[in-house]
């Protein structure tokens, strides 16, 4: 489904070069729920941006759905983002001027669906996240958890193959975080691949697989689990 | 997608009303100034009888001072008006389809209704061909008959305004009206007729009012009508009596003919040449090769109705519009960059750079459209000011063509102003904004 081989990404300024990813390798199978963890600055978000084709990279190969997307132009990348990927952000990133209906409508507009098809998909997506009755509300009228559910509905409306979630519960209290996570699990159970970047080991544990990123590289899963256990041990003391 | 982009543009304006209003006003002020000057230029340079441009000719013959041309800078041109005796001689030709000499006069109109005080008005003496030649529209009746052009008949055609004033706007054909203590019978009442510029008499105010009444030129000598237009003389002559003035070399009469065919035009040119030759032989200062047959368009050009100052003003107002647009570029850039977060979200959700570029340009066009509407309103005020400055008669306003030009200019100019800001915003890397939203 998603296969990255030896991806390197360097951010350059006049004075400094920062290697955000070095020889980054990751393969995700269809239907998986993968949690990507790691400390701040480890390269998690860079990985997610490259996976979402929002950023380019210096070297390596990126296959998405079997297609090499490394050298695609802007139009082709936008099309793939629109058709195959769904994004969920920590800050929800809803457009404040638009009501919920119109927010969910955004990716569908660029997809070129006709009005009745868009209406059907928007209704289904909002119903699925339990906000069907609030379609005419604007984001400011909703709680953080509700806004994130709208963002999930927006990501789902285009029936993407993969959902890329960047700290989806980072701005939510624990109750709302649990609800959002349950929603993501439900979506995954229906066959959508989910790649979630998180700081939270508890959330990571509920994923099928954990990938730990350190200094721009994927580290061994075992190391990660040991680190979690050790942290739990310290906490119990 | 255009309707979607228009909806987004409306939302964007609502979201940022101060910045949006500033941009609209910048465009409106620029468009207002530019369209004011352009409309004046358009009006001044327009040919109000363009559909007859190929058959109408202003006629001039040169019997001016042999030692000094009438126009110093264009010595090949005859004076713009004729002497009375030249006008009468040319009127005798049967080559033109229509022909008329004409001049301004004045008269005191005494309404039958005693409640309306007598008033003085400017009129015109001409032949009945004047009305046919210039397609003058009639509300009631028509021109006087041919007989009134050859023998004294006290008949008159009234303008719509005069008819409104004297007869309350009723059909006054056949009614009597007193002008300078003589009774005239009304044969026709014009519809509103205000050719701008007043092409048939540019020497007496190219943008002045049309006449209040029209009477046969045949009556000129009988009633010893007043002459109120410009008169130019070059020779020391006895001008004390009515007859002496009429026999003088002073020029004060306009002359127009309609020549429908090439043959007519050639024969008429020969006629003018022969006439001037004959006058030279009779001892007058006549130059046989210096006659003029100018179409209305040529006549407007010769008389320089559109002055250089007007052209300069159009240029300056265009520069002012460009300055306003440069301000708009900065405002648009600020506005678009302020929305980098939303744009990044759209990019992440599948919008291509081109989609974003189009969306921004539609917003620019939308702002330009509203700016154009306000600008047209401002042009209205500008034109009122110009009307006073140039002493235009009648309404000075934008016609349909100018309104279309205003909208088109506003939209194109605002889209042009938005090209660079739109290009900048669609190149913003979305990833950086998505995390910081």
Structure keywords:
heterodimer, A: 237 residues, alpha/beta, four-stranded antiparallel β-sheet, B: 437 residues, alpha+beta, six-stranded mixed barrel, 14% strand
Number of helix segments of chain B?
A: 14
> Mean pLDDT score of chain B, rounded?
90
Percent of residues of chain B in beta strands? 5-15%
Coarse structural class of chain B? alpha+beta
pLDDT < 50 runs, ≥5 residues of chain B: none
The biggest beta sheet of chain A reads: 6 strands, mixed
Point out poorly predicted stretches of chain A. none
Order of helices and strands of chain A: EEEHEEHEHHHEHEHEEH
Adjacency order of strands in the biggest sheet of chain B: 2-3-8-5-7-6
- Amount of helix of chain B: 40-55%
Care to count the β-strands of chain A? Answer: 10
- Cα radius of gyration of chain B in angstroms: 30 Å
Principal-axes geometry of chain B comes out as elongated
Cα(first) to Cα(last) distance of chain A is 42 Å
Mean pLDDT of chain A: 85
Oligomeric status: heterodimer
Share of helix among residues of chain A? Answer: 40-55%
What's the tally of helices of chain A? 8
Radius of gyration of chain A: 18 Å
Measured between the Cα atoms of the first and last residue of chain B, the distance is 26 Å
């Amino acid at each position: 489904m998603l296969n990255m081989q030896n991806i390197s990404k360097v951010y350059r300024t006049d004075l400094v070069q920062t290697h955000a990813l070095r020889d980054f390798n990751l393969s995700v199978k269809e239907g998986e729920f993968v949690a990507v963890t790691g400390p701040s600055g480890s390269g998690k978000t860079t990985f997610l941006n490259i996976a979402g084709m929002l950023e380019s990279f210096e070297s390596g190969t990126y296959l998405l759905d079997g297609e090499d997307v490394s050298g695609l132009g802007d139009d082709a990348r936008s099309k793939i983002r629109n058709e195959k990927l769904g994004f969920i952000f920590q800050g929800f990133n809803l457009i404040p001027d638009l009501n919920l209906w119109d927010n969910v409508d955004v990716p569908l507009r660029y997809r070129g669906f006709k009005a009745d098809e868009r209406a059907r998909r928007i209704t289904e997506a909002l119903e699925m996240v339990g906000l069907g009755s609030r379609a005419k509300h604007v984001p400011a009228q909703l709680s953080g958890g509700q806004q994130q559910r709208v963002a999930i509905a927006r990501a789902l409306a285009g029936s993407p193959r993969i959902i890329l979630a960047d700290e989806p519960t980072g701005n939510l209290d624990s109750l709302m975080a649990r609800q959002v996570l349950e929603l993501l699990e439900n979506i995954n159970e229906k066959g959508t691949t989910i790649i979630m970047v998180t700081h939270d080991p508890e959330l990571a544990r509920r994923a099928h697989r954990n990938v730990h990123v350190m200094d721009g590289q994927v580290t061994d899963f075992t190391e990660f689990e040991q680190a979690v256990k050790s942290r739990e041990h310290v906490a119990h003391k | 997608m255009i309707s979607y982009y228009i909806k987004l543009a409306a939302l964007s304006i609502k979201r940022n009303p101060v910045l949006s209003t500033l941009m609209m006003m910048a465009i409106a002020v620029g468009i207002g100034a530019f369209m004011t000057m352009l409309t004046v230029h358009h009006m001044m340079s327009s040919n109000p009888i363009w559909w007859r441009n190929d058959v109408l000719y202003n006629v001039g013959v040169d019997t001016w001072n042999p030692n000094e041309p009438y126009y110093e800078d264009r010595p090949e041109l005859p004076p713009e008006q004729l002497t009375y005796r030249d006008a009468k001689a040319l009127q005798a030709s049967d080559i033109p389809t229509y022909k008329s000499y004409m001049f301004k006069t004045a008269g005191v109109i005494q309404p039958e209704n005693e409640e309306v005080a007598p008033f003085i008005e400017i009129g015109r003496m001409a032949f009945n061909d004047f009305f046919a030649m210039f397609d003058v529209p009639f509300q009631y009746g028509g021109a006087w008959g041919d007989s009134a052009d050859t023998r004294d008949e006290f008949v008159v055609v009234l303008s719509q305004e005069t008819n409104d004033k004297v007869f309350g706007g009723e059909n006054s054909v056949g009614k009597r009206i007193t002008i300078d203590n003589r009774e005239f019978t009304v044969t026709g009442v014009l519809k509103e007729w205000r050719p701008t510029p007043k092409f048939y008499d540019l020497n007496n105010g190219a943008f002045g009012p049309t006449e209040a009444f029209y009477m046969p030129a045949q009556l000129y000598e009988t009633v010893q009508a007043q002459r109120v237009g410009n008169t130019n003389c070059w020779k020391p002559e006895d001008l004390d009596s009515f007859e002496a003035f009429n026999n003088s070399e002073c020029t004060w009469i306009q002359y127009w003919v309609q020549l429908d065919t090439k043959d007519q035009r050639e024969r008429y040119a020969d006629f003018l040449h022969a006439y001037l030759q004959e006058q030279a032989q009779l001892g007058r200062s006549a130059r046989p090769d210096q006659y003029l047959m100018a179409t209305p368009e040529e006549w407007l050009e010769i008389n320089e109705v559109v002055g250089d100052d007007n052209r300069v003003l159009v240029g300056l107002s265009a520069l002012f519009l460009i300055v306003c647009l440069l301000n708009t570029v900065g405002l648009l850039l600020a506005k678009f960059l302020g929305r980098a977060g939303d744009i990044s979200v759209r990019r992440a959700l599948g919008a291509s750079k081109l989609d974003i570029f189009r969306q921004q340009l539609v917003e620019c066009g939308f702002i330009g459209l509203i700016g154009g509407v306000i600008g047209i309103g401002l042009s209205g005020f500008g034109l009122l000011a110009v009307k006073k400055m140039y002493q235009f008669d009648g309404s000075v306003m934008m016609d349909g063509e100018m309104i279309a030009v205003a909208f088109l200019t506003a939209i194109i100019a605002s889209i042009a102003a938005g090209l660079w800001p739109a290009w900048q915003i669609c190149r913003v890397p979305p990833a950086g904004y998505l995390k910081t939203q």
